[in-house]
Amino acid sequence: MTTGKQSTLTPRLVFKLWIALSGLIIGMAFCFIVITNYYSNQHHQATQQEIHAPLAQHLIEEKFATTSAFNQDGSVNKEVFGSLMHDMMAVNRSIEVYLLGLDGEVLYSVVLDHSPGEPSRYVDVAPIENFVNTNGKNFCLGDDPRATGERKIFSAARLTNQLKDGYIYIILSGEAYQLASNNIFQKYIKSFGLGAIGLTTFFTLLVGFVSIWFLTKNLRKITSVVQRFKEGDFNARIENADKSDISVLANTFNTMADTICQNIEEVKKVDSLRRQLIANVSHDLRTPLAILKGYSETLLEKKHLLSEGEKQKYLEIVNSNSDKLSRLVEQLFEYSKLEAKQVKPEKVKFSITDLCLDLVSKYQLKSKTENIDLIFNIEKKENILVYADIGLIERVLQNLIDNAFKFTKAGGVITLDLGKSKSQNKIKISVGDSGIGIKESDQLMIFDRFTQNDSQNRFTGAGIGLSIVKKILELHDSIIRVDSKIGKGTKFTFHLQMN
User: Is the pTM above the cut of 0.85?
Assistant: First the structure.
């Protein structure tokens, strides 16, 4: 018996549960940070674009109402356009202004190199046309001429004059803006990330321990009951197992505990029967052995003094007790095999009628010698076929008939009856006698091994024959029943499957 309070949950289990819960919450926090950053950035860009959507159109209305962006030969008016770009970008360093052709070619910008021999750059005009057609109401991103593959918020407007058409294209988050934004974002994400991780860790510890306490409440309860059971409280059971969060485990333990208790009771019963077996077998073996020893010693020591008649009588007694001893040992061996389930019936189709007739014929001599009538009754005198192990069924009938002879006085009657059962496709077999009978209180015990009722105690035998009968019939999925009254005889009845 252990003493002191024991922990119902190991620190290792609690640690694993806490790690699992912490990983879940931290993962959720990380996803929250990423999603929040993405959508906040999208919101900021959409807001910036909508606020500055008219910028390109205002530029055209203010600067190119009287002045053309193109020269007479179709080239870009770099003097006017260049100074305009410098002025705007000086006021707002986050923007970059471009003059585009209708096909998206970058015609001029102060931030790009337009030296002879430099390849032309193009931007996708689809987002620009979408922006212009919706007056900047739809959020969209356009190509950045300075960074191939990158897309940024912009403002755009159609530039139309008599010389040449094109677009004024203004990147609202240019290189200067990106540089400043990245620096600020790095500082922000560090402080935000550290704060989020700190708060997440705190709440993970708090929520983790509370959750583990609630989640393992039923587990602790089960563990406590198991501990009590281990320490010898075999009545310990988990109450309201079906309502437990882990009802399968709770019900499994209760079932296991019931099975263990049943096995313990069975072991106790087996131990009691073992002691009873030793006592009964010792007594039953001692008697024939003592007789064998006594008469054999007499024959050896006084063989010259005994007449031939006395010698013959002594030899018959020795032979009779040898037979009794052999039968007892054979019964013990047979029952032990049945008990260990080493006997498997080999079922075949055979005539139970012929088997009964053969047994009655074998017992005729004994019937005459003991002055007991052995009668065989069969319905309609028909040949009845059954499906069973012929050797085992013969053993059942022999034991029942021997039992009937043992408890029937001279002048009595033993009957062997065959008849149709009320159950479909079964035959009823009965062995009855007019013997001493069995008390009603003893009828449930007569099939227990080495048990004889009080009225039978004066008869010899280990009380194992009926136990063998019961075991054999169990192998045939049959139950034997007894009907008996004191002084009026006993009848044993069982059923077999017909072919």
Answer: no
Q: CA-to-CA distance for 496 and 476, rounded, in angstroms? A: 8
Encoding tokens for residue 409?
């006085």
The token duo for 46 is 């959409």
Interacting residues of 28 by C-beta distance below 8 A, sequence separation 6+? none
Low-confidence ranges of the chain (pLDDT < 70): 1-11, 13-14, 117, 162, 174-194, 196-197, 200-201, 204, 208, 212, 215-216, 244-246, 273-274, 276-284, 340, 448-463
Distance, CA of 410 to CA of 407 (rounded, Å): 10
Which residue, among 438, 370, 358, has the nearest Cα to 398 in the 3D structure?
Answer: 358
Q: Which two tokens stand for residue 241?
A: 């197992």
Q: What is the C-alpha separation between 492 and 437, in angstroms, rounded?
A: 12
Helix (H) or strand (E) holding 349: strand 348-351
Residue 450 in contact with residue 276, Cβ under 8 Å?
yes
CB distance 335 to 399 below 8 Å: no
Indicate the SS3 state at residue 96.
strand
Distance between first and last Cα of the chain: 60
Q: How far is CA 455 from CA 337, 438, 448, 452, in A?
A: 29, 7, 16, 8
Which 3 state secondary structure label does DSSP give 169? Answer: strand
Interatomic CA distance for residues 282 and 276, integer angstroms: 10
Q: How far apart are CA 312 and CA 299, in angstroms?
A: 10
Cα 116–Cα 120–Cα 121 angle in degrees, nearest 5: 145
Q: What is the pLDDT of residue 4?
A: 45
CB-count exposure of residue 477 (10 Å: 0-12, 13-18, 19+): exposed
Please name which of 404, 355, 407 lies closest in space to residue 378, comparing C-alpha atoms: 355
